[in-house]
Amino acid sequence: PDDEILxxxxxxxxxxxxxxxxxxxxxxxKGLASSLRKEMRRPPDFRGLDARRNRITAQxxxxxxxxxxxxxxxxxxxxxxxxxxxxxxxxxxxxxxxNFGGRAAQKPAKMSQRHRRHRQEYLEAFxxxxxxxxxxxxx
Length: 139
What we know:
By secondary structure, this protein is mainly alpha-helical. It has seven helices and two strands; from the N terminus they run αββαααααα. α4 (about 80-95) runs antiparallel to α6. The radius of gyration is 37 Å and the shape is rod-shaped. The model has no long low-confidence stretch (mean pLDDT about 80).
């Protein structure tokens, strides 16, 4: 049907705009089909996908562990008295200053007066807080 493609105005013939849009859509569809065929011929990157899956799985595991730890700490802190919280915080501060895996562990030497004092503070803080820690946490 030439009526759908061509129009006439003032004795002159012209191509209708609807036909031009139809041809443009057909060309875009053909280009899309061509790129889809190319994509289908390319083999999938199984190694890359597997590496990505492994990274995400490891991240999920770490997040699950962190969540459980945070929940345990939160639940325990809700049940501790002010005295227990104070003792635990003091022990954590002292333990955080200690060098358990540094040079002292590699090269045994005599304990200085300062080392003995810090060790004694650590042991005293541990003795004060150990009674507040539930037995299932210590095992």
